[in-house]
Amino acid sequence: MRRINPQNFTLAKRGTSREINRQIVLTLIRTHQPVSRADLARLMDTNRANVTFIINELLEEKLVREGAQGNEKVRGRKPTFLYVNSNKSYAVAVDVRASRTFLMVTDSIGKQISDIVSFATEIDPQKFINTLSANIRKAVPSSIKESSCEGIGIVVPGMTDIKTGRVLRAPALGWVDVDLLVLLRREFEDIPIYIENSGKACALSQIWATRSDLHTDHDLVFVSISDGVGVGVIINGELMRGKHNTAGEFGHLPLSIDGLPCLCGANGCWEAYISNLATISRYFGKKISPRQPLSLETADFTIEDLIKRARTGDGKALAALHLTARYLGLGLASIINAIDPSQIYLGGEITEAWDLIEPQVRDAIKERTLTRELGVTPIRIVPAIEYPRLRGAVALVTSPAFAAPKVA
Amino acid sequence: MRRINPQNFTLAKRGTSREINRQIVLTLIRTHQPVSRADLARLMDTNRANVTFIINELLEEKLVREGAQGNEKVRGRKPTFLYVNSNKSYAVAVDVRASRTFLMVTDSIGKQISDIVSFATEIDPQKFINTLSANIRKAVPSSIKESSCEGIGIVVPGMTDIKTGRVLRAPALGWVDVDLLVLLRREFEDIPIYIENSGKACALSQIWATRSDLHTDHDLVFVSISDGVGVGVIINGELMRGKHNTAGEFGHLPLSIDGLPCLCGANGCWEAYISNLATISRYFGKKISPRQPLSLETADFTIEDLIKRARTGDGKALAALHLTARYLGLGLASIINAIDPSQIYLGGEITEAWDLIEPQVRDAIKERTLTRELGVTPIRIVPAIEYPRLRGAVALVTSPAFAAPKVA
DNA sequence: GTATTATGTTAAAAGTTTTAACAAATAACC
DNA sequence: GGTTATTTGTTAAAACTTTTAACATAATAC
After folding, report:
1. Is A23 within 8 Å of B31 when comparing Cβ atoms?
2. Is the CB of A338 less than 8 angstroms away from the CB of B249?
3. CB-CB contact of B359 with B327 (8 Å)
4. Full-prediction pTM beyond 0.85?
């Protein structure tokens, strides 16, 4: 139940009903394709005439295309299948990370149509943009060079201002108030550019995934653990942004207000207990040094190495993982108590050791959640191979075309 | 931007536009009354003809009534003022608390039309319902006995299932799985009954308050501190409920995972540091005894007494308050980092000492929030005299008539 | 070949918003 | 005091929806 904002509402006009039903039809085609007009009429519980009218409009705008005819062995005229016209334009997705930047090209419904390429992330913003631009141009397949680019979606490990397209703070990159949008717009005029925090983008990737249509997740949380902890939250089917687009910073919830020092300046943050760096430090028996986040990172030892050792009988490595697992669970319990999500998605390198750490995580969750149901909140591991951050970057570009219109 | 759920959407029908605009008109009359048709046309940026049609419909349904004519000293025909017809029906609001239960009667737009009455809360559910029913019947003014009751809204300090109307857990009352709805429906057949957690209701009270129309709060948090800590969160203009309607349990975020034992069974919960009981215990230099929550409560010493002592020079009392203030701020910082609300509303007895504790609270917030903007998130004290819980109970009943229709 | 059945289109009906014209009412003006 | 200007509210017609009903199309079943 939503309250109508008397300062900022949207009146229904003559064309509003059509607009609403158009988006519903587009969504249904996207999630059910191939699908016929008659199928749509049944799905929408309306008559075929109405569907015909709407489809004609979408065909004229080339948002939808007709395909082959169905040929099931049933009596009656055969249906003409409809598809979202995904060749109309393409999208570029970019995932900026501390060490490397990844990018790929997709069609207009987010299907990958290029290899995933990567390059070393340059810290100097102008140099970064130069390298990025060159790589984007190289990645777009020559076959689709003529079709228009629907947009470029960029995902960054830090706080962003989505209105101005600025990166406010990205500690892992050392960026403060970097105006990515302006720099990139010089290279790609007239192409829409979307810039978003990686945790939020990951959450979007799950909401907009075609797969996720099966479950009706209206409230979900995506937690990804790497150098830091990124969290994205979907509430009532919408991304939780907050007033300054900084909502979802669960990484700095305290486990103990006078615990380990965190890179953020405070003490005892969850992140300080479960980041890859924290786990590695724990293994080596060192404290995290607040102002030298990269000292160990740049050393060759990674969390993957640690997991490998744990798997091959290194008791200290396994113990370090188990302790991280416990803290991970304690923090997740707080998120569960706060949000009560129908599902938690978990990403990051450490999830490759999920079989080793799941019991500790679950026990810790049960320890601090307030009801039995909350204690068994389902957790889905999102493996690196699914590229959730890149998928999120894609969603930034391709999802607006399918979103519900703003009404009332 | 909201995704359309392909499993559960609402098609636009022939009457959908009208339905949307009707609700907008109702909302505008509620927030701007007295208001003329011409005013509405200007507010809605549409023509007077359309407004006339919609108003005629609302007049026929007696949801709106015409009043006197305006008489400003301007040229032209004088406007006829429109009002929401608040005499059509009445609502009953009930606030169940550990010691006493409060109730009042309002008209259909939530204006108080009876005294606020209270009675001792009986722990036995059946006895409670009997007393409540008698008090409700007594409270309804005889002048409106004939008009219909729009509903009864009940607010409870615990977890509720709003679908079945059951109280799942209310530690302060010792209620576990109490079926309030069924018990009360025996007394009041055919009258809609709404049961909700008090923290969530408080949040609703702010969103639906006519006053709050000034600021466009799309994301807000209501924190009320008494025996426990109740929190209600509004995200994107909608109450955050979560899968089991238990979202918002920030009271059990840890400040230190191995800190003070909390009544919930875990250790170091925020609640264990800032509840009235916690502050009083601190003053007396005692630890909170986990399984005897009422031992100190039933003693005559209240938090109000403690505040009085602090004001009259009792240094230990002031110190206890200041420490609570610090912990309060540290917890609020976590909420701010997580939600990034445009405003925090703070209720509970301790807010009567706001002038004494504000600096400590603000300092603690700044200490753990991640950006400068987050550190200065505005806080509004909601005094007891505003009866936020009762206002929330009212909103449960009266707000559905003004809510945005579900569309797309 | 004919009957049956499902798909997709078309014309007309019914319900919206929108436009334009008009009636009603009142202050300002000469 | 009469006329003009201006604002409010209504009404009729236009434009754009969804909905209903009828129909053409195309395939299988008999």
Report:
1. no
2. yes
3. no
4. yes
